[in-house]
Amino acid sequence: MKEMKEGIVTINLREQIIQQEQQHVVQSYRRPPFVLTNGEGMTVYDSDGNAYLDWVAGIAVNSLGYGDSEIIEAIQQAATGLLHTSNLYHTAPHAQLATQLCEHSFADRVFFCNSGAEANEGAIKFSRKVAYMNERHDKREIVAFTGAFHGRTMGALALTPREKYQKPFAPLMGGTAIAEFNNIDSARVAIGEQTAAVIVEPIQGEGGINVADQAFLQALRDLCDEHDALLIFDEIQCGVGRTGTLWAYEHYEVIPDILTVAKPLAAGLPIGAILMTEKVASAIQPGDHGSTFAGGPLVTSVAGVVLNRVRQPSFLEHVAEVGDYLIERLSEINSPLIKAVRGRGLIVAVEMTVDVSGIVNAGYEHGLLLVNAGPNVLRFVPPLIAEKHHVDTMIERLLPILQQVEG
Ligand SMILES: *Cc1c(COP(=O)(O)O)cnc(C)c1O
Known about the structure:
The protein is built from 14 helices and 17 strands. The protein is an alpha/beta fold. It folds into 2 domains: 4-61 and 313-406, Aspartate Aminotransferase, domain 1 (Alpha-Beta Complex); 71-310, Type I PLP-dependent aspartate aminotransferase-like (Major domain) (Aspartate Aminotransferase, domain 2), CATH 3.40.640. The protein has a 7-stranded mixed sheet, sandwiched between helices. The chain starts with 12 loop residues before the first helix and ends with a helix. Pyridoxal-5'-phosphate (PLP) is lined by residues 115-117, 120, 149-151, 201, 205-206, 234, 236-237, 262-263.
């Protein structure tokens, strides 16, 4: 821009933004060549006015879509109040959201944080503190599973067994063991007296939308009880209404000791929460853990609105119904590229015989935001307000892409 002569400034906003990103942003993401500017409902628009039907929702975050009037109002109202107080002081939205979360889950107490990884870090610390308070200094190990994704920080990363994510950053947190997902025998080998906690996603997100079996989660509960270990469910991606119940664990009637929540809880604002039983919480004393920003009045007031909306039976029924319809329509597609369709509610995957990045890229040309979950899995985690006609439109746009890839 600096070198440009007066009068011939032809560079448009899109090119300028992409140039700035490429020059000054750490290149840890490969972004497509458009700039998102605004959105409404299930649709986002770029700076050239192109519309995209959004099946990604900012990675399962934008639970109520774009421009929701109740969310806008909650943010505006909260913005006129205190934005930040730190956790040194009481504020109403913080205490009220904790109360709401406990009223509508197994939990007795909540600790707030700012992201998913942070929620899992807290869950690891709390689990080890429980063992420590019981003078079980031998009980340090955290068990996780193949295909898991628990975050990018050093503790959560140690529980995310993917070489590409872990290897350049070694040494990671010690005291971990990895067992095979949905394999009870493997879990039985890994879980013992040394185990402080077992962490599992009831539906694995990044790992490819793998649904835990009933018998597997029940076996984890039994093994944890047998060895006095805590069971942590990571519902950062599958929780808050996504499966058609408020919490994914409700489908199993297996109750964890700790539940980690983040992505959709504040409809796009950064928040994390660690829900737990009194047994866990009673091991935590002032000074054990903290966060400067966490649970601030703005994010917690917005999360209160989200939770109030999503937990309504009619809202959850809608998610289940549209989710069933999505699975039905995807299953009807007759393509040699499709190996399997799986999921529950609005967390659904199509496993393909090919790398899906070409399909994701072609989606942009067809007005679709799509995302993968591993190389061969196309993932569907739209805003929870998606309707059947959005499913129809998405399928209509996906079919020619698949035909194109089939060649
Ligand atoms: C996204 C995700 C995380 C990490 O959340 P961040 O907010 O990105 O740190 C952890 N667990 C699961 C299941 C996730 O999907």
